Amino acid sequence: MDIAELQEIAQKERFSEKPVQIRCCVAAGCLSANSQTVKQRLEESVTSAGLEAQVQVTGVGCMRLCCNGPLVEVKEKNTDSLGTLYEKVTPEDAPSIIATLNGVETTVQKGDLAQPFFTYQMPIVLENSGKVDPERIQSYIAAKGYQALYHVLREMTPAEVVETVTRSGLRGRGGAGYPTGVKWATVAKAKGDAYGARSDRKFVICNADEGDPGAFMDRSVLESDPHRVLEGMAIAAYAVGANQGYIYIRAEYPVAINRLQTAIRQAQRLGILGSQIFDSRFDFKIDIRIGAGAYVCGEETALMASIEGKRGTPNPRPPYPAESGLWGYPTLINNVETYANISPIIRKGADWFASIGTEKSKGTKVFALAGKIRYTGLIEVPMGTPLQRIVEEMGGGVPDGRVVKAVQTGGPSGGCIPASAFDSPVDYESLTQLGSMMGSGGMIVMDDSTNMVDVARFFMEFCMDESCGKCIPCRVGTVQLHQLLTKIREGKASMADLELLEELCDMVKHTSLCGLGQSAPNPVFSTLRYFRDEYLALIAPVTSKT
Ligand SMILES: Cc1cc2nc3c(=O)[nH]c(=O)nc-3n(C[C@H](O)[C@H](O)[C@H](O)COP(=O)(O)O)c2cc1C
Ligand code: SF4
Ligand code: FES
User: Fold this and answer.
1) Counting atoms of ligand 3 from 1, which one is nearest the CA of 25?
2) Average pLDDT of the residues in 468-492
């Protein structure tokens, strides 16, 4: 396969497109609301209306406004104008939507593609989401897919690729925000003399475990645009000198797993994965490893243990995976969204990417907007976008006449940000300063009916259940913290209990082995910082009796 063949596939795909495109979301959210049948009925209605020559129905990935799914978009080919968005479409609505093509009015609910939920978005990671058919490689190739990989293999040295990613300022989207280029450079240079690691083989891993409550960004990216992640992994493998990749994904994501399997098969068939990719000397194979859904298996050392067939529990670092990872070999591990950013960085350049976002947080971030908010779904915004804009303008604020109280970011490792701090920009540093963190991108909005002690207790229960039990501070500490939070919530706690809670949080944070235990107290810290009065209100009646 050379560039001419790649372009030929793209041209053929574009040429075969019919004048009217009907896109029906077949990502998990809409699938669960019967969108597969909607798609089928749309196809049948096109045939009944004799419009097969003009109209094409395509199953696409997430169109982002998941709360109003199943979504269907009708758009004319080759126009810049917005299409028509239909919301909450049922199979029975299909004939009526097709009849609009002959000028008949419909009562099917229409959405507004010019509403702030869409207009404030900057789709880079989600560029193809809701547009390409995730089950056809040709569709991805027609959207400039695999051009970056071709360019890298033909025109760039591995060191130049690492340098480009470094210059782009991309930071890992899996939670901690570690600079991606620095990580790639470490794996590329790994000699294997530290900690007994061997350098004759290297591995690349995609972390698609995504266990945070409320987070569904990575699942959506994989369901909507799986080739984008494969391309990012292949570029990474070339840059660091690896020939084998693994995607670690939880069994609860069957649609994503299915689409990944199809995508890998299709890429292998075209010689885009496998041996001598694009007729170069670069070989790269990707296999999928399915996890059983333990949150701790998203932690990189536990994840690697699980791939090795061992129990998925964390190990102390150092050594870091970059030096001694899978089976002791240098291993690059990045998140789904991190890989999904790579091909646009190569295609459009490091400077383009670095021009988006803030001084220290470059590019965009995908968030799964959920909770007590009018519009829930996926948003991708430039780093630095104020929380106010996300919650009030894009999310449409809190429904039912209630008032927004806080936003929880970063999952169980993150914290709650009060509405009074919503003018803060969303970037790694600002969220940390506020006592929360970016995390992988879950964003849960809470209204004034939410009790913040309940929130802290919910996340502590999650950590307690998900603790692997390997180290005592986390195994025992999370249980004790959960008991104390329950005591407070039930109005049975004293001030001494509150002091003990804070002391214990500090101990668990500083003595736990891995990030799960180290960050488990974060929701307690942040709710105590901003909503201490709610804790005190629950304690006061008991203390007054004593
Ligand atoms: C308890 C725990 C769970 C984690 N879960 C995930 C996860 O689901 N996905 C992910 O990409 N990173 C997760 N991480 C972070 C990974 O350990 C690792 O830092 C990340 O995959 C690196 O990728 P990045 O540099 O692209 O962010 C988790 C960390 C901890 C401590
Ligand atoms: S901190 Fe918790 S999850 Fe991590 S190793 Fe210790 S017990 Fe396991
Ligand atoms: S899953 Fe269909 S719009 Fe998100």
Assistant:
1) 2
2) 97
